[in-house]
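User: Predict the full complex structure for these chains.
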Amino acid sequence: MTDLTDISSALAAQAIELPSWAFGNSGTRFKVFGSPGTPRDPFEKISDAAQVNTYTGLAPSVALHIPWDLVDSFADLRKHAEDNGVTLGTINSNTFQDDDYKLGSVTHSDPKIRQKAIDHHFACIDVMNETGSRDLKIWLADGTNYPGQDDIRARQDRLADSLAKIYARIGADQRLVLEYKFFEPAFYHTDVPDWGTSYAHTVALGDRAFVCLDTGHHAPGTNIEFIVAQLLRLGKLGSFDFNSRFYADDDLIVGAADPFQLFRIIFEVIRGGGLNNPEVAFMLDQCHNIEKKIPGQIRSVLNVQEMTARALLVDRNALAAAQEAGDVLGANGILMDAFYTDVRPALAEWRESRGLDGDPMTAYALSGYQEKIEADRVGGTQAGWGA
Amino acid sequence: MTDLTDISSALAAQAIELPSWAFGNSGTRFKVFGSPGTPRDPFEKISDAAQVNTYTGLAPSVALHIPWDLVDSFADLRKHAEDNGVTLGTINSNTFQDDDYKLGSVTHSDPKIRQKAIDHHFACIDVMNETGSRDLKIWLADGTNYPGQDDIRARQDRLADSLAKIYARIGADQRLVLEYKFFEPAFYHTDVPDWGTSYAHTVALGDRAFVCLDTGHHAPGTNIEFIVAQLLRLGKLGSFDFNSRFYADDDLIVGAADPFQLFRIIFEVIRGGGLNNPEVAFMLDQCHNIEKKIPGQIRSVLNVQEMTARALLVDRNALAAAQEAGDVLGANGILMDAFYTDVRPALAEWRESRGLDGDPMTAYALSGYQEKIEADRVGGTQAGWGA
Amino acid sequence: MTDLTDISSALAAQAIELPSWAFGNSGTRFKVFGSPGTPRDPFEKISDAAQVNTYTGLAPSVALHIPWDLVDSFADLRKHAEDNGVTLGTINSNTFQDDDYKLGSVTHSDPKIRQKAIDHHFACIDVMNETGSRDLKIWLADGTNYPGQDDIRARQDRLADSLAKIYARIGADQRLVLEYKFFEPAFYHTDVPDWGTSYAHTVALGDRAFVCLDTGHHAPGTNIEFIVAQLLRLGKLGSFDFNSRFYADDDLIVGAADPFQLFRIIFEVIRGGGLNNPEVAFMLDQCHNIEKKIPGQIRSVLNVQEMTARALLVDRNALAAAQEAGDVLGANGILMDAFYTDVRPALAEWRESRGLDGDPMTAYALSGYQEKIEADRVGGTQAGWGA
Amino acid sequence: MTDLTDISSALAAQAIELPSWAFGNSGTRFKVFGSPGTPRDPFEKISDAAQVNTYTGLAPSVALHIPWDLVDSFADLRKHAEDNGVTLGTINSNTFQDDDYKLGSVTHSDPKIRQKAIDHHFACIDVMNETGSRDLKIWLADGTNYPGQDDIRARQDRLADSLAKIYARIGADQRLVLEYKFFEPAFYHTDVPDWGTSYAHTVALGDRAFVCLDTGHHAPGTNIEFIVAQLLRLGKLGSFDFNSRFYADDDLIVGAADPFQLFRIIFEVIRGGGLNNPEVAFMLDQCHNIEKKIPGQIRSVLNVQEMTARALLVDRNALAAAQEAGDVLGANGILMDAFYTDVRPALAEWRESRGLDGDPMTAYALSGYQEKIEADRVGGTQAGWGA
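Assistant: Here is the predicted structure of the four-chain assembly.
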């Protein structure tokens, strides 16, 4: 039996933020399928998210998306969260669903539309001040579909200007986290396509600006763990949006498509001092288009935990010695040994020793919660990306 | 001035089918933007499509999508089309928007759902018999998002069985055309991911089954013109869905992302005897998410025409001689010479000689049609992928 | 402890063919690094390959590459192999290193060069008759670098003609296995780029023609296990060339880049009846550019064995039930459960129960063989891709 | 006829540096084909390069590769160049062919090997001082093939340290230009994989450190013109290595694979002030594996010139107005109008007006130079990547 004694405190400290929108409906441009029990409002989303924490002890906070999660009283929402044992986390802005943003938001050639997008971020900061959130995460759908449609260079300059205005409004204990994405929904170019662009802008902004790395936002063949190592080295890795993908931005369950990649990513996080470091937030950003949402989230945080355990088990002294000796097969073998170790039985025991159920998936399934929400949540409009 | 004399009859014979859904709204999973003047019903879509033909003489038929284009009377729709100088073309089935199809349609493990999907195709064949359409085009969203979700092999067998039942219903003068797509909306596997799969199934079905090649449905780095050449050689290229893409299934204007690729594709069509061959239908399948739809379609058919003219101008005797001589640079140079020839002035003259406006884009813009539909089409629900 | 009782006979029957060229030097266009102890001739390659079998019991045969492995007497080589406990396996042809083949071999526009390439295959069949080999594996470097360089369609026709001539020479108990590769060393197009092309040609050839699937020869995003399932369904999967890659045709150790993909591939082999089926040969095709070659091969066959064990452990009844029930997370979970099972301790015990060392990597390292060949093999020319 | 009057001075100022190694043999890991007339030494390479300039007026300098181009007297080589009407340009270092560099050079874990690699760069700077070269271009093959093989993060730190030592030796009028490449010859990770990494290091080094953008060194789907725009904006675009590719680092003739991409790249260069700006060097980096080398280079510089002319013809006022108006199709149309303009006849005239032959390809072919070198250069060892 693998012994987790040495890594127990690292495991105990782990926290993964859940996205409120993972509990609503999502889909593709072809169809958004509904599902019974889907929340109708942010309060119900928080209730569902809290279930994930109840059964795993891994997910103590919930990220909100504005305006999808706008409520009359964020104080009430905050209390509701706390009553359910979780807190409100990162605030995500949204400048891609208003008709004005058809051709861009903070990069738009029209200064009025840019100001509208900047104002939206000011409103998000107001929400942060009410929810007690630390991070404003900015993902932009800005970009173009056709060469020549707009001036790529001018858009960078406008981006820099808009970000500076938003950054100036961020509180002393708050952070601006800029996400990059190389593709979709803009098809020809996106205005923040890669970590280099996000990095250059956050350097220009200042010490409280960081990069968000969404694991699904890279070109094929990209070595993501390298980017992790590089951003940690440069002091600019602010957060992860975890998910997995086979081809594009699939937003599948983290670890589902390539578990070994997830292992390598977390290993570099540990190597670079990013694990359980408050500077580097772990978040999920996923879409449960066809699978049940609450167990989908439970499975996801468990995947992160299991891979973290494996990565913590790497014999780093032996690894360093093999690397130093130029022993290619030996060094690779030490890494693989940890990856192939089945940590699940030990984690179940460890979980039980901490008052949790050893098998969170089954415990949730047997809890009756799913049946209850499916029965109770009748009527109203199921939450989705539009609301 | 480039002389089009020798290729005039080939140009004159060219016909490109328009998709009715290109005139409705479309978008991404993030947002579908509306636009003034969008049709509210299939009749208005046909009217708009007819404008493309009026100004280009290139688009004499319109493909329908069932159930999006269901009307009370297809006889009326057919008459409306004929009154506007176009005909009704390919019928496209849709088995991806009913809740029953969440996990598959003709490949579903539940025989009742498979039969429902088969019955939908029977209904499409009924429509074909009313519209006088020759082709039933089948694109399937079937696939899975997670490894293990379903049995890949069993789904192939069920696919073969379902297709055989549909094929048996096709009339003697009708065809079944099976489209392939390597990704989206299913993320882990699609049931018809590549030309090989579509080819193997159409061979098993029989002589009236063909492959549809959508230019946006391939993995990065795929040489599409090779597939064109191969399918023509094997006698199974039934139709094209033209569009262009930078990364995924962008459905941008054909030729917009890589004009040289479009040139190479059409060159292989000509080389293999597929141009103006009724066996090989040219169709558009595009999404005008942010640009105006009617001029978007005009631009598209003009792009196909211009590239066809360039490809027809290749000096094939000289090319063959250079190829035979192993003259790599010479052979490439002969191809490029045609590609770099600016055929637009000669095409404008040629158009005028045939009673068309030399500049269809401007002619449409000046026609007042766009202003009229934007003013007239107020109220009702704009057509989109849902209707 | 995982119990291997039920899968023991399947494991015992497994055989993986080694490529003789894996024991010679290899590299990239930038540099081929030499390494001490590298074989100078085919006899030494066989000796090294036999070591892999000695320590794993998994690798009873060795594939040859002609002309790299030409010897004066194949009877002697055959006897040398048998003396070392292995047999000679697949014969691989080579039509990419003679100056005549600069622009193609069996597809060349010059019939004399095509005949030369066909004759080379005849010579390979002669070797097969001496070595007792069943399979002639054909991988072609044929293709073009520039559009227009040659006639893609004509090359297909010439390919078909050349293959037919080669196939006609194959003995009644022999097979022609046609490999495909979508890229490299030709850059614009390859003449056998995908499984569809290889499939269409082997169908045209006849019952003794099969497809070889090299796991590194696909475009990014390709679902390889789907192709496995499809080719097994169509009865045309003849063999695997196992290796792994991160981007192109890296020829890394199988399972090194994406272990979960290897698991899924082998699961589909089992699902489709291809495991330990003589019709489906398992082979390695790898390049140990920087790591030691013999342990590199040992690691490789162990990776295949370990993944086979995991794939055999999938609870297929439970999986089928979850699939039937549309339980997406449940079905995926059953697959993942087998993948995450650490089979290594049980395999070590099982190995020992069969008279092998439980840890083949260490057993080889301690054997002194490596030190001996590094000391003995001084002088001469180290084998590589040129010889 | 397109009028080049307004862009004549921009065209006249254009200069593209040629790589000496393009005139030697090159190939793939499968085969390097020789060709008659290939230079045997750096003097002959310079002679050949000068031919390109003679016929195009576009290529006044030649980049050298150390140690491939080491000569006894660089003063003699410099004089030979000047006698042939060209100058010696960028010095390229090479730390990938010595056995010591098997696992890395400036990033190697062994400080002695790092120092050796640093010393090689010092030697390159010595050459620069003799040749009068301004730029030291560093492309590193450093990276790993297997996860765990070495410590990615530590290698970044060692890279930074080594580069700092090299940079400290650069003269006040010299520059260090750091190239990035996402793949090959290292397969799992490369130490400078992307522009972000190169950018971060050059910022840390100082004002005389710049990024080199090789157009073939990106992941599929990467928008290269965006990177051009971004690096120009950040003041760090030092040079281009032009070539083209269909999949990996094909090093084909620039513009051959995707002419429209080349157009877009050069348009962004112009937009950002990089054309004929001494800070942004235009160079070729290509491999003429199967085509003749001198005409291959002539074709290449003409491609760059022709695309430059097209990009200069963009009506930027009209473009800006359409962009400002949000006219997607209009703005795209203005860009495409310039791309589709056939500038070749006007360029031929313009060339003749400047005392050059209108058709450099034919002029070279008729010159007899090729026949002469093929007859004269008998014996000796043809130059290639090894020498």
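The longest strand of chain D covers residues 87-92.
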